[in-house]
Here is the input.
Amino acid sequence: MEGKTHLMGGLCFGAAAHSYYITELLPIPELLVFYGSCLFGALLPDICHPGSWTGRKAKLLSKNISRFFGHRTITHSVLFLILIYWLTTTFTFTYNEVVQTGLLVGIASHLVLDALTVRGIQLFYPIPVRVRFPLYLKTASKGEAAVNSSLMLLTLFFVYKQMFS
Here is the structure.
């Protein structure tokens, strides 16, 4: 998937999590941190691809991850989710629970969306089995555009539900 679809996925999954699982009303600063973390988490797994937005921001790290692990392996796995959970639990900082939740939601959205592609992901890395949905599509295709539009509509639904429930 392209970065714009991953951003929309992070926003959509964040809105769904906010609508269904975050029961208390969050103050504006926490909402901004939560959705910002969802967006960042939605792009973070592509740090293994030096040409991605995240890869271009952390060139040296990206090149080394790509060289040692390859694309859509460790950063597209349950192991990566556990690592991010552990890192965000280990260090305490302002809004740590909000950041942790947002990052994990964003990363989960990325994994789901990349599992919708022809190549799939190595969800259970280091086990070299690729996981993908039975219905899949090519990156940057009309199918991806339809997924992106659907995510946008779902986001609007979740935001509307949150505001008027």
Observations:
- The radius of gyration is 16 Å.
- The chain has one domain: 3-163.
